């Protein structure tokens, strides 16, 4: 039997304190529980140690230690996490970066600075019918 995801938990991987606080505030106001990883190593530890995947991973590309491209691959390789939506959130706007993220297994790519309402709409799109 496949693992059921935690329908209200979002893993946020973001090394910028201000952006991490903004994301946590926005998501928690919508009723989500936020688990925050501030670098790629912490993200890998959380992914490898959690029995139940979150409902979604919101992932920066430029991270200390392990970048977001590699974290996507870690998510996709983890049993039970294969279908967890991954949304990349990054300042990198080059087409090659977007293609690389999508090829690595990301479901979507949002460029910073982002509009909170657009971010929430994209999250809702992925979570529709998953709860």
TrEMBL record:
<keyword id="KW-0238">DNA-binding</keyword>
<dbReference type="InterPro" id="IPR001789">
    <property type="entry name" value="Sig_transdc_resp-reg_receiver"/>
</dbReference>
<protein>
    <recommendedName>
        <fullName>Response regulatory domain-containing protein</fullName>
    </recommendedName>
</protein>
<keyword id="KW-0597">Phosphoprotein</keyword>
<dbReference type="Pfam" id="PF00072">
    <property type="entry name" value="Response_reg"/>
</dbReference>
<feature type="modified residue" description="4-aspartylphosphate">
    <location>
        <position position="60"/>
    </location>
</feature>
<keyword id="KW-0902">Two-component regulatory system</keyword>
<dbReference type="InterPro" id="IPR039420">
    <property type="entry name" value="WalR-like"/>
</dbReference>
<dbReference type="InterPro" id="IPR011006">
    <property type="entry name" value="CheY-like_superfamily"/>
</dbReference>
<feature type="domain" description="Response regulatory">
    <location>
        <begin position="9"/>
        <end position="127"/>
    </location>
</feature>
